[in-house]
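Example record

The entry below shows one chain as it appears in the dataset: sequence first, then structure tokens.
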Amino acid sequence: MFKRLLLALVLFTAPIATASTAQETWPETEVVVRGKAAVGPALWRVSDGDSQVIILGILPVFPKKQKWSTQRIENALRGANRLITPPASSVGLGDMWMMMSKKGLPDRGTLKDSLPPALYARYERTAKRAGVSIKDFARDKPIWAGARLRREVLQKYGLSDDEPVATVRQLARSASVPVKAAGRYDIGPMFKAVNAMNEDSSEACLVYTLDDIDFDIDRAPLAARAWAVGDIAAVRANYQGSALIKCLSGSPQSAGIMDRGVGDSVTAVSAALAKPGKTVAVLPLGLLLRKGGILDRLRGMGYSVSAPQD
């Protein structure tokens, strides 16, 4: 039970670093419309003198069976100083056990009895459409029922939160390139904020999660196919941000995650540029391209940023 719930939470919070909204404002200079398929995913280059960082932007979830050409990434990794991966998250056992003890509804109530009829019907429809049983979630609070449903749906549809990062990480190891995350966060405080939600907020969070599930079922494969050929315009049209960030919208936790994710990534890239040679980075597209995001800040620091068509 503990392992299954931990996996649900990992899948629920994994897209945190990509936090944004669907079809958010990405500068048109970054949205590359290609006349024909590229040889692989879009790459950005950030340069300073004889140093450069080659950046691959990634999606929140990615079909495990999606094929893509790794040739350009393999070439980039050859002789690279380091591979920078997205910020990683962790949670202490104490916070995990506390969350588990409070994930259920009071007085062993049921989700069906606690939710408005229309919302429960929507919850049932999404689960039925995905072909996932909700029996095991019947006494969970709405937010955790949604998180566990999302876990089951992603697994059933072969959607991974660890690809293509895992593939690139393996390529780096094969090329004897050191790998380091841009940052590491304790997300225990976020879980506490989630468990402290009132009834209305928890129900709203379930709505966001159901929207996220439906969107991923319909659009994640389309986004991945566009990503594989560097069509960022099509990626944007089929892009969805983090349900959890929407749940915490306006809270200090949400703003802190956004700022820290961008800031730590910028710091990692800037540090890499202080060393001659090249570094490869794999970073979330949502943080990379958004207004005031990673590329914007790097340009503001005086670095040269080349768009994929350059």
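Notes for this example: The longest strand covers residues 51-58. The radius of gyration is 20 Å.
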